TrEMBL record, chains A, B:
Domain Transcription regulator PadR C-terminal: 92-173
UniProt xrefs under InterPro entries: Tscrpt_reg_PadR_C, Tscrpt_reg_PadR_N, WH-like_DNA-bd_sf, WH_DNA-bd_sf
Sections of the chain in a coiled coil: none
Domain of life: Bacteria
Originating species: Streptomyces noboritoensis
Name of the protein described by the UniProt record: PadR family transcriptional regulator
Limits of the Transcription regulator PadR N-terminal domain: 7-80
Length: 178, 178
DNA sequence: CGCCTTTATGCAACTTGTTGCACAAGAGCG
DNA sequence: CGCTCTTGTGCAACAAGTTGCATAAAGGCG
């Protein structure tokens, strides 16, 4: 049940239309939560029905016309309750680690190229995050919000760093076999 | 489409019944892929129907009786093809990072306890992994299979280490606000 | 025997996430 | 005007994962 809360958070930071939200989820928001535009539209409909958000008044509320949403007090309260509630960490489910374990039984043919490709993807991702860190979190900005958001971004950066280190080890190990 | 392949990998390592598989997925297999017993039984049925695995003959093939499965050549081939194929890393989706971002907007009330609880869970998990590392991967064991499986376990260990480090930072940041 | 617990298999309903496509309006262009 | 491209909203079908419950046999116990 996290997607509605992700949308509420995004809308509290800045009221947006469905497509704008989609773009934000593809960019910086995607560090910690991804979503497709279909998911977003479906959820916006539900949130509007339940009274958590509302569409800002517009002259032309027709199909194909931009529709901006803002969060209502009920939505804000719901988000605050959710953020403070207890939730266990999700059990791990990583296809790449699984494939490595499978390779231990069926052989490592064709794996090197795939590992290199992933390494490259993670290196680009890391560069992007570091660019954002330089742009959005210079040392002089230090409000409460900035510190918390910076912390989240640091999570993304350190996770990418982990993958890069692991993939490098993996390439050493797999190449060593051949 | 990873669950069937996770099951094939587990069965290749050691033929098992549904409940045995469930236990393995709760223990060491869970480092990189989790599954409930309902998922597993459903998938075992599908895999048997498609000819990837078969039930080992038993005297009493009745409900409530243990039913062991083994992988057939078709299943092994399918797994090898899947392991070597290209698959993009999944987009991130972490509820805790999301909650931290939400907390930046709605406030950090009640968050400290939750962060401490997660820190504790990750510390236990790390200890468990390190125990397994000492037991199953002593320096003298160094076959190809061992190196690859050890690599996967190292992934689990380093991920837990990452979370512990991040949660410690997070606690510093959140406590600093109060 | 009758009752309870453990081991084991399994169905059904629901929620969440993905994929593919349809529809609508405006802008640029010959 | 008619054509195509971009922006924007949305439905429908499917796949994957979760939750709750049902069923059955075997072993221990009074």
């Amino acid at each position: 049940m996290s997607l509605p809360h992700a949308i509420l958070t995004a809308l509290l930071e800045k009221p947006s239309s469905g497509l704008e939200l989609t773009r934000r989820f593809d960019r910086s928001f995607g560090f910690f939560w991804s979503a497709t535009h279909q998911q977003i539209y479906r959820e916006l409909g539900k949130l509007e029905q339940s009274g958590a958000i509302r569409a800002l008044p517009s002259e032309a509320p027709a199909r194909g016309q931009k529709k901006e949403y803002e969060v209502l007090p009920a939505g804000r309260a719901e988000l605050a309750a959710w953020a403070a509630a207890g939730q266990d960490p999700r059990p791990m489910r990583d296809p790449l680690l699984l494939r490595m374990r499978a390779a231990a039984v069926v052989g490592t043919d064709g794996l090197t190229a795939e590992l290199r490709r992933h390494l490259d993807l993670h290196e680009r991702q890391l560069e992007m995050y570091e660019g954002i860190e330089r742009r959005d979190f210079p040392p002089e900005r230090d409000s409460e919000q900035d510190r918390l958001r910076h912390l989240v971004l640091r999570g993304g950066i350190e996770l990418e760093t982990f993958w890069i280190r692991w993939l490098t080890q993996a390439l050493d190990t797999v190449d060593g076999e051949e």
